[in-house]
Write a structure and sequence with these properties.
11 helices
Amino acid sequence: MIVEFFGIPLSGKTTKKKSIRKNNYYSYKKFYILNLYEKHKINSLTFRLLYFCCLKIETQENVLIENRFVKKKFNKILKKILNYIITPYINEDYDLIKKKYSNFIFYFNRINIHNTNERKKILSNWIKSYLVFYSKASIQEKYIIFDDEGLVQRILSLIFYLKIFNKADLKKVLKFLPKPNKLNCLDIEKKEFILRANKIFDIKKKTFFMKNYNNFHNKYDFIKKYIKLNFKKIKINDNN
């Protein structure tokens, strides 16, 4: 089973995920690391290193409100180590599955082209990784994949900073979206969002977020309504 959280930034996805920990629950990335080990692509020492990096990164505070320089620097180093080791495997696996998800990738790129060059690159890397993670996770039944940063959330990231985007293309992205079994949607009222946004350490980001609640929420609501109307096999829970 694959369970994803969905919500705008600061809605509490990471906090909620950390509060529900079980031994057979794996994030997409943790499961991919486990899969590499079980397929004998990495040895036990590498597995332990990657798992440690992943654990520390996933249990950190929200990066928007984390203001401890040393801890942020440490987590960046761990992320670089993790990405350096697993990226070649992701690229190899992606070449094997990209044809299967070609429609989704096509429409995703049609929207992504309107993002800035830096953001285009980030989103392209994200979607490549998560398609690979999903392809591995969806064909097993032993573990529950439980993630606050799944494919549905990446679609919100796709349109997050865009003032204008083609809704017909977005509907196509959602139509071909690889689907989780369960989606936990976390709504957040504007008053609470502003209180949390006020804790953002970076002044420019704080100002941007405090001004854009309605914009963020409208995009989130559009995606959630589309999924509720069209994806009958997905179990959707609000504010769980």
